[in-house]
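Before relying on records like the one below, remember that each one covers exactly one chain. Contacts with other chains, cofactors or solvent are not represented anywhere in the record.
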Amino acid sequence: MNKADVVELLTESFSKGTSSPFVGVENREERVRLENEKLLDLIIEPVKVTARTNEWVRKFGEFPGEKYEMYVIAGKDQDWLLFDTKTECFSLAKGKLNEELILIGFSSDDALAEWRG
């Protein structure tokens, strides 16, 4: 997987629309377009990682296991968008890229919704 693959994955996800809410926005379509562009600007060279869960995620989220192999494909600071090649779903994780990443608990094929949490 490389950056070109990530652009393709995100573009495909964007083409399906997003369920992400945009409360108080006058022009939702324009705001979604801008947020999609922002996410594309955060693409990194994919890095395979072991993302971990915490007790809350295992109990209330979609990840009952303690760890999952995924690719970090975009992000900044302590927010990272992950892609699971097995499920073809995106997830958000928090933490430092070269250290421990904790899944927030949900996944879907809607990259923007997952990114926005």
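Residues 51 and 100 are 7 Å apart (CA to CA).
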